[in-house]
Design a protein that fits this description.
The chain has about 550 residues and is α+β, with helices and mostly antiparallel strands. The protein folds into 4 domains: about 100 residues, Phosphorylase Kinase, domain 1 (2-Layer Sandwich); about 180 residues, Transferase(Phosphotransferase) domain 1 (Transferase(Phosphotransferase), domain 1), CATH 1.10.510.10; about 140 residues, Alpha Horseshoe (Serine Threonine Protein Phosphatase 5, Tetratricopeptide repeat), CATH 1.25.40; about 70 residues, no CATH class. Helix content is about 45%, strand content about 10%. The chain is built from 20 helices and 11 strands. It has a 6-stranded antiparallel beta sheet. A 3-stranded antiparallel beta sheet has the order 7-9-10. A hairpin with a 3-residue loop joins strand 1 and strand 2. The longest helix is centred in the first third of the chain and has 23 residues. It starts with 5 loop residues before the first strand and ends in a 14-residue tail after the last helix.
Amino acid sequence: MTGARVIGGRYRLTEKIGHGGMGQVWAGHDERLARPVAVKLLRTDRLLAATGGTDPTTTERLRHGDDLRRRFLRECRTTAALDHPGLVTVFDAGEEDGELYLVMQRLPGVSLADLIAEDAPFPVERAVAVAAQLCAALAAVHAVQVVHRDLKPSNVMVREDGRTVLLDLGIATALDPEATRLTLTGVPIGSPSYMAPEQALSAAVDPRSDLYALGCLLHEMLVGEGPFRAPTALGLLRRHVDEPPVPLRDLRPEVPAALERLVLDLLAKRPEDRPAHAQEVYGRLLPLLPAAVSVPQPRYGPLPDPARPYRYPLQPQPRPDGTAPAAPPRAEPSPFLMAAVPRPDPHPPTPVPLPAVPSLPPGVAGAGEDFAAACARLSDLVDAGRRAEVLDLAARLLARGRSELGDGAGMVRTVRTIYARTLLQERRHHEALAEYRLLAATVEGGPHGRRALEPRFRAAECLEQLGRGAEALTEYQALLAVWPETEPERLLDLRERIGVLLASLGETEAAWSWLLQLLFDRERREGPHHPAVRRLRQTLDTLQPHRTTATPWPPRA
């Protein structure tokens, strides 16, 4: 076969992009509609062997071949009828020169297998975002009585914008009991690393078999490898059938307990012990997904981020130059967007006094300059490290944004965040404190919501720097009680800050006990030579002479 081959009179094959035991996948070009496609070619003789159609007589082989073509085309019709953004679109199917072919949408992006190889273990939010998107796709597949049967990283594509798409329903099994299946019962087809026990034993499969594979994927994204390993496929299948998986938190302690429990439930040996359907799995993942933000999404990074669709739902692609979209005229937001637009607190704190805004020359965020363009110029000043100019322009933009858009508008909050951060960098802690408090008060959900945590933390930093240790301690303790487990480093940082403040306020014994427990936890997590562990030991060394009890000091590793 050469790259010049044309299938179906219109699909020109250009480059082989994959192959397996029963066929090949080619990149192609639809010459009629001038669009890129992917073409899967399946050898009927190999499919016959795989499905048991190896009758010795020519007549019987021809009969089996005709049945196989009919089954293949029926399953193609089933998958082509699926309409979901998490599933690859099927364009065409047929047969040519003894090969069945399936023409599909060609998706740009990175396979989940490559993303795992490049970036595993994933942050918890990223792994959860992949799994949640796959749940949505699987729910659509299972709703039409189809089981995918081969859910694995190489069959998942992550697009540049983070959208996750499930590929290759080519060996899916229809659950219609009156339909003859393409994949005949008794032949375990799938990938051993992700194969449910009942699938490995050639027993009947159902949607819960796909959920088992999803559990394997979650384990691999969070740890860097699947739940079971063996040198041979047979040994791997035996472990799936007989051995319990190691709990995730034994391998990665910062994984939330709820996520560990979900993965263990997905990897249950008996289908009836697993979640009943993909919708239930999604519901258990929902609390762990990242929250939507109300700022324009940044430029795409070198690797796609599957959490991006949840942080920036339905936002347009960033411009090539990275500038933000133009601010709309002030008006009541559409009811369809109300959930994504921060509502100002009806009783917001008194705004921070800003420099008076004189008549602005052209090009300085005045009436003649678009607000979004001025914000883009502010970002350039930040990148250049020109802090004095950042503070001047941000102050002017805030004064204008308040009057035109209100304190709760997304772009105003973005400018305020830059302003507060620069004030903090310049050690103007009193002014930064007021800005961070205003940020916390104007987020959606109010000062006690999830999105207020970061500005509250920065405000507590300012209190600490201003010598208001008791107030900072109270705020750090409140934040520790509500900070999500998905950010273990921030939790450890909060614990250390609390211990140091206790010591500075004269609570030596309380500080000692608190920091000693933190030391033990840090050593278990990071080893005795980690810089944070050495720093904690130095702090405890300093406290030791001031203690009133004689608790022995832990030995050094």
